[in-house]
């Protein structure tokens, strides 16, 4: 199911802003980084992409 389409105004051809939030509930990405970098064990970990925080684990 997609989001319902909004009514379009004449002469306006823009997509509405969309915000997507991914929650790493099982800390998968942080666990992968800890496997790749063993010195991170026992340290808080934040996995980022494009200079934005995407996953954090304590």
TrEMBL record:
<dbReference type="InterPro" id="IPR050116">
    <property type="entry name" value="DNA_polymerase-Y"/>
</dbReference>
<feature type="domain" description="UmuC">
    <location>
        <begin position="20"/>
        <end position="58"/>
    </location>
</feature>
<dbReference type="GO" id="GO:0003887">
    <property type="term" value="F:DNA-directed DNA polymerase activity"/>
</dbReference>
<dbReference type="GO" id="GO:0006281">
    <property type="term" value="P:DNA repair"/>
</dbReference>
<dbReference type="GO" id="GO:0042276">
    <property type="term" value="P:error-prone translesion synthesis"/>
</dbReference>
<dbReference type="Pfam" id="PF00817">
    <property type="entry name" value="IMS"/>
</dbReference>
<dbReference type="InterPro" id="IPR001126">
    <property type="entry name" value="UmuC"/>
</dbReference>
<dbReference type="InterPro" id="IPR043502">
    <property type="entry name" value="DNA/RNA_pol_sf"/>
</dbReference>
<protein>
    <submittedName>
        <fullName>Family Y DNA polymerase</fullName>
    </submittedName>
</protein>
């Amino acid at each position: 199911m997609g989001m319902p389409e909004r009514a379009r105004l004449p002469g306006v051809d823009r997509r509405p802003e969309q915000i997507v939030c991914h929650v790493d509930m099982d800390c998968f990405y942080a666990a992968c980084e800890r496997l790749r970098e063993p010195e991170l064990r026992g340290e808080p970990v934040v996995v980022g992409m494009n200079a934005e925080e995407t996953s954090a684990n304590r």
